[in-house]
Specification:
By secondary structure, this protein is an alpha+beta fold. The protein has helices spanning 11-18, 26-44, 145-164, 177-186, 188-197, and strands at residues 51-60, 65-67, 73-82, 91-93, 99-102, 107-110, 118-128. It has a four-stranded antiparallel sheet, with no helix packed on it. A three-stranded antiparallel sheet has the order 2-6-5, with no helix packed on it. The protein is elongated.
Length: 204
């Protein structure tokens, strides 16, 4: 078991927060970090680590804007529209001077034309997310310290729950989603942080 490449914190930073001074729980903490990372990304409906998304299909809404799923957007490599109203893999490029990109929320606004209503009739290739990694950059170092703090609190709560319930074994850590959700709802601070980073239900 190793930390996911998109893990939102490190074992040592959790231990520093929780005041754990030995390595007896390192494997459990690692698994919990991975589990919490998956929970938070599911809750927020977005991935935080910088990545490239290729040919992500988007529904046109018959208005002058569409949005990609991930944000903040670092760069958009291509935007294309389906060449037919049928589900045929043939695409026409949309010139970059025909639209404006709102990097903060991934919204693409046309320059005076409409994204024709349709099912998966546009697609984009782009890079989005935050540039961090476990070796050098933490979430705190790139201005997302509150999100990392929420991770610490959820991991600590799971550790305490595990200690209080001797029947909980490391093999069940992957099923902690309900526990995390209950903790997030119970803890107003965590709830506020996660809602701040959650993808809006509608950005139009």
């Amino acid at each position: 078991m190793a930390l996911l490449s998109n893990a939102l914190t490190t074992v040592q930073r959790v231990k520093d927060f929780a005041g754990i001074n030995n390595s007896s729980l390192d494997t459990v903490i690692e698994r919990l970090i991975n589990s919490v990372t998956e929970f938070i990304e599911g809750y927020c409906q977005r991935t935080f680590l910088l990545a490239t998304y290729t040919n992500e299909e988007i529904d046109g809404m018959g208005i002058n804007k569409i949005s990609v799923r991930q944000y903040p957007v670092v760069a958009i490599t291509s935007l294309e529209r389906r060449a037919s109203t049928e589900n045929i893999n043939s695409w026409d490029s949309v010139d970059s001077n025909m639209y404006f990109l709102r990097t903060a929320n991934g919204m693409i606004e046309s320059s005076g034309w409409v994204f024709t209503r349709g099912r998966a009739n546009f697609r984009a290739t782009y890079s989005a997310g935050y540039d961090y990694d476990q070796a050098a950059k933490t979430l705190e170092s790139i201005g997302l310290g509150d999100l990392e703090y929420a991770v610490w609190k959820l991991v600590q709560a799971a550790i305490l729950n595990r200690k209080d319930n001797p029947k909980v074994q490391s093999e069940t850590i992957g099923n902690y989603s309900v526990t995390y959700r209950k903790e997030a709802q119970r803890d107003a601070e965590i709830n506020e942080i996660l809602d701040r980073y959650a993808r809006p239900q509608s950005i139009y």
